[in-house]
Design goal:
Radius of gyration: 37 Å
Number of strands: 82
Distance between the termini: 105 Å
Shape: elongated
Strand content: 35-45%
Number of helices: 4
Largest sheet: 26 strands, mixed
Helix content: under 10%
Amino acid sequence: MLNNILNFQTLIKNKKILKTVKKWDLIPIGSLDEKTLGGYQPTAILYEDFTKLIAKSLQKTNTIDVTYVELAALKTTGTLVPDTTYHITDRGIWLVAETAEALNLEGERLQPVVKESWYVPLGTALGVWQANLAPVIGDRVVWGGKVWTNLLGNVGSLIDHASLDPVEWGVVSTTDLAFYDLKTFGVIYDFDNDWVARQWDEKGNVFGISFDQETILSMYGMNLCNISDWGDAGVFENTSWGVFNNIGFIFKNSNPGIIYENQNNVYDNSNIGDIYRNLLGASEIFRNSNKGSIYVNENLGSIIDNTNVGHIFGNTNGDVIQGNDNKGDISGNSNSGYISFNNNASHISNNTTVSSILFNSNAGSIDGNGIFDNFILNNSNAGNISTNTNSGHIWYNSNAGEISTNSNTGKIERNSNAGNIINNTMIGECDINKNSNLGDISTNSCTDAIFNNSNAGSILSNSNLGWIGRNSNTGNISFNTNVEYINDNNNNGHISSNSTFDSITYNSNIGAISTNSNTGIISKNSNNGGITSNSNAGVISTNDNNGDITVCTGASGIYNNVNNGVITGAHGADVTDAIVNK
């Protein structure tokens, strides 16, 4: 840029001086650096824009003062004077007539704005009103683009975005220049609807909503340009419907929504929605991109780098909610850990954590969790992980079903399922882990492990202090109550309705092992039939059968049998001989 005399001398020496100027040529200027008060910065302006500014300045020498009603009459009757500036005295707006019937709706506005000093708590100035203030009579606060004086020594309450309780607070007239500065703004003024649709200042703020949007949406009931914090030095380079009633720096945000009542720094956000009522202490909301809302958060950490078409709201956390890409909600969380790196098209909601929910990719919900020590992490699911209360881990899950309603101090881990793992209650170091299933693992209550299962059926309704483990089945392991093992089964049928204080082990079956009540062992069976309806205190073991062992009661042992027939009925002693049907 041309910012010292040597530059000019060099141009003259090299014969770079022009005699004509094109509209897109640049004219160097020095711009006042208002944010840092660091003097002037080298900038430039297009020649075309420079000439427009000169023309506008000359037009003001030909200005007519009118009221809004008078100018409306001139426009209606087609008696406007082209190229004449009309000062609408009861609106503080200047517009230029383009023809006898039309106005150029881009104009200027002179508006009283709260002096910067009243935003800074000092002496009787308390800054922006907050519900936790302890004012005395005569103290002053800022709210809704106005200064208010305390009347009775009580904090009172807010009425809306623009007003405080009139019993406790009296508004200071905008004509009192001890409290307000008169500032000139650029505006788009919807004259027919008497509505400032857009307004901008020298700090790079552009605020406003069209009359049609406000009418259709019925959102605010007031023009947000009138209540925005134009005088707050910490509000700059924002594009939104309005920015007001915030404490902290609000800058470089772009959103067709409003940013209000935040007590923190809010910057570099791009969202279609509102950012409001966040209470973050010394922390920040920044670099979010969303088409929903980020609001009512209270945290000592950050909410950062989120891209979502949903909501992040109602969070109270002492750590970070970050890196989320979602089209749903992250909501209602209270945590001192992380909710991070989630990619979801649904909800992560109602979580209470003192640890982390992270690395999740889901098109369902992770919700209602209460976690106080450990993680829900590395889950990939199109279903739900929900309503869990655990001091252990739910991790490495890949599921298109649900992991839900779990209460555990153990682990649900490394599961891959297209069905459900639901309604589990576990204490101790009980694990449900390394399962791969297209069915259900459900309604289990255990202080031991259900693990290493691969099934396309169900493992359900188990209550056990032992193991259900290393099963591979496309049938069901169901309704078991056991203090020992049901393990190493490979079955395409059912292991069901068992009540055991011992083990059902090493079975390979395409039939059913069912309805057994035993304190002995049913073990090492290979069968294509059923071992059914047994009540035994002994052992049914090492059977290789293509038939039935059924309705055995009180047997001390039925073992080492090879049968293609039936062992049936009531028995009170060992059955040791093989039964072979030929």
